[in-house]
Amino acid sequence: WVASSDYSEDLRIGKEIVQTNVDAYRKLRNTLRWMLGNLAHYSAEIETPVSAMAELDRLVLHRLKALEATVRAGYLAYDYKRVVAAISNFAINDLSAFYFDIRKDALYCDPISSVKRKGALTAVNYVFDALAKWLAPILPFTAEETWLSLHPESVSVHLELFPELPETWLDEELAARWEKIARVRRVVTGALEIERREKRIGSSLEAAPKVYVADGELLEALENLDFAEVAITSSIEVIAGNGPTEAFRLPEVEGVAVVPALAVGTRCARSWKILPDVGSDTDYPDLSPRDAQAMRERKAAGLDA
């Protein structure tokens, strides 16, 4: 509450303001806890060069680097309200509602050997390191508890310096492409939300929508992209064109139309994706080939009985 208040004016406090701060704190705490859970599987041996990471992981590092300037400027100006707002917005919108939501499939289900999984864990480690240190002056006890949970050999997060993030993480061209991808994703999400509301699907993984894209720039942004992964569907079909008149559209995203459809196949017992090749591995008849390979590697590593 103190850090998020504008001390240039009279301070206000009441039940509603306290509850707003409780909710904001809980979201930050859950963000840190989610990263801690995944980083239990991280070690220096699997650290991946940024150049070898998938685009989505490089995008979150780009946004982290862009956030660094705001955080440093806020602290230097004693503008803690600006720091709290910037970090909270990043944690809620960029991480929890976007990056974590997409990446949890690779982090939870990819094989141990997966380059994508290793790259994602490396990116999460960078994000955790920066957020824990940036939050330390504002949330001293939470930051300390969080930091020592991952680094028990450390004395205190309050003896650490803010990280100097590499300038090479900034990639405006990549960010511009993903802004276009996010616009198309917004239309897909909107269409699937109606399907959920009408109880035609239970989750987005039950869907395999057709996405019609008439805008040439948006269509180009989707090239060589696993858009089903980004939209969190079991499969997806991107088609050049305007789409049928009854297709779902959003006024603010011109040139994109979505026709919802159900995914075809069997539900994987591990990833919950509905795919036609589930059961093709005779050793794991209720899993997709990706998940079967993951289980095989876990067994070989002695992680599963």
Detail the topology: elements first, then pairings.
Blueprint: H1 15-39, H2 55-76, H3 80-109, H4 115-135, H5 140-150, H6 172-197, E1 210-213, H7 216-221, H8 227-231, E2 237-240, E3 248-250, E4 253-259, E5 266-267, E6 274-275, H9 289-300
Parallel strand pairs: 1-2
Antiparallel strand pairs: 1-4, 3-4, 5-6
Feature tags:
single chain; 305 residues; alpha+beta; 4-stranded mixed β-sheet; two-stranded antiparallel sheet; 9 helices; 7% strand
Assembly annotation:
single chain
Counting DSSP H or I runs of 4 or more residues, the number of helices is: 9
| C-alpha geometry | globular
Helix-strand pattern, N to C?
HHHHHHEHHEEEEEH
Q: Count the beta strands.
A: 6
Side by side, the strands of the main sheet go 2-1-4-3
Alpha-beta content class: alpha+beta
Q: Terminal Cα separation, in Å?
A: 48 Å
Uncertain runs: none
Largest sheet: 4 strands, mixed
- Estimated share of beta-strand residues: 5-15%
Helix percent reads 40-55%
Mean pLDDT: 96
Structure write-up:
By secondary structure, this protein is an alpha+beta fold. 52% of the residues lie in helices and 7% in strands. It has nine helices and six strands, in the order ααααααβααβββββα. Strands 2-1-4-3 form a four-stranded mixed β-sheet. A two-stranded antiparallel sheet has the order 5-6. A hairpin with a 2-residue loop joins strand 3 (248-250) and strand 4 (253-259). Helix 1 (15-39) packs parallel to helix 5 and helix 2 runs antiparallel to helix 3 (80-109). It is globular and about 55 Å long. The model has no long low-confidence stretch (mean pLDDT 96).
